[in-house]
Amino acid sequence: MKTVNRQGDMPAVWCIVLAYNSIDLTLECLATLRAQDYPNLYLLVVDNASTDGTVEILRTQAQDVELLPASTNLGYAGGNNLGMRHALAHGADLLFLVNNDTRLNSHCVSALVEEMLREPICGAVGPMVYTWDNWQTISSAGGHVDWAAADAVNVGAGETDQGQYPARSVDFVNGCGIMVSKTAVERVGLIDERFFMYWEETDWCLRMHEAGLDVRFQPTAKMQHKAPLTWQQQSPLTLYYMGRNRLFFFARHGRGIQRAGAVMGAAKGLLHGVVQNRRAGNCAASEAARQALVDGVLRRWGRRSLTFSEART
């Protein structure tokens, strides 16, 4: 068990690495966290019931890291909530949620903390996220909720970073790397576990805005994320959660005509996915979109035990 060692006025930052299999990526992520130039950093890995020996390997190869195994896959929301409860109970001031398929430059944590302290009403701050292959192609420079298109957009995705995105307030930051304050959790609560995975960080950030807290993007904090840029590269299960939770998000946060239009747009997007993927012979993606629409209409949230065949006909 870790105990917080206060270092002057420097906040105690607990970095919560959420892992599910991919032990090689987890070890690489931890190596970049150990290299951070921020001195008051505590490392915690929450393992979401991996089946590749992650827990056993970390116990032998990462004994400097606290390990919190979950008995079942709790998803992004539940796994991070488990870690945050533990960290807050042991003196955390700031919580830095990091996916295991990321790697960070050595100043990332320090830059995020500086941005958090610069904005006294800041609830969350996120870094510049690049693609896995290089440190020039942007994956996310903060997020924007497009109500007209019923979508959450990672700003700058696919662009070359030329300094065009300054530090600023944003609608949300990408959940692969998001630092939140203890104050934010006290005001708005933890992540809503009904999302299980996808859209939960967008929901969380909007709840912070609604509570009077700012959400910031800081480009001098840099990380890479091993994630596809387009929906065509996503698995059917990912498409299911993204589609279903998109309906949940806009139904929850919209008001009046804006809400009706956004929900209708999200539903039409799923219908389009059903038809177009079927025509293209991608039956798994088509079925994922159909099931997302059905569950969204019936308000079936949380984790769902679903299997979509990858076979194409």
What does this structure look like?
With about 325 residues, the protein is of the alpha/beta class. The protein has two domains: about 15-225, Spore Coat Polysaccharide Biosynthesis Protein SpsA, Chain A; about 230-295. It contains nine helices and twelve strands. The chain has helices at about 25-35, 55-60, 75-90, 110-120, 180-190, 200-210, 235-255, 255-280, 285-295, and strands at about 15-20, 40-45, 65-70, 95-100, 100-105, 120-130, 140, 145, 150-155, 170, 175-180, 215-225. Strands 1, 2, 3, 4, 5, 6, 7, 10, 11 and 12 form a ten-stranded mixed sheet that branches. Helix 7 (about 235-255) packs parallel to helix 9. The longest helix has 24 residues, at about 255-280. The chain is globular. It starts with 12 loop residues before the first strand and ends in a 16-residue tail after the last helix. Mean pLDDT is about 90; it is low at about 1-5.
Task: State the major sheet.
Answer: 10 strands, mixed
Order of helices and strands: EHEHEHEEHEEEEEEHHEHHH
Distance between the termini: 53 Å
- Based on CA atoms alone, the radius of gyration comes out at 19 Å
Low-confidence stretches: 1-6
Overall CATH class of the largest domain = Alpha Beta
Strand content: 15-25%
Number of strands: 12
CATH fold name of the largest domain, please? Spore Coat Polysaccharide Biosynthesis Protein SpsA, Chain A
CATH architecture of the largest domain: Alpha-Beta Complex
Helix content class: 25-40%
Number of domains: 2
Count of alpha and pi helical runs: 9
What does the average pLDDT come to? 92
Which outline best applies?
Answer: globular
> Helices and strands: which structural class?
alpha/beta
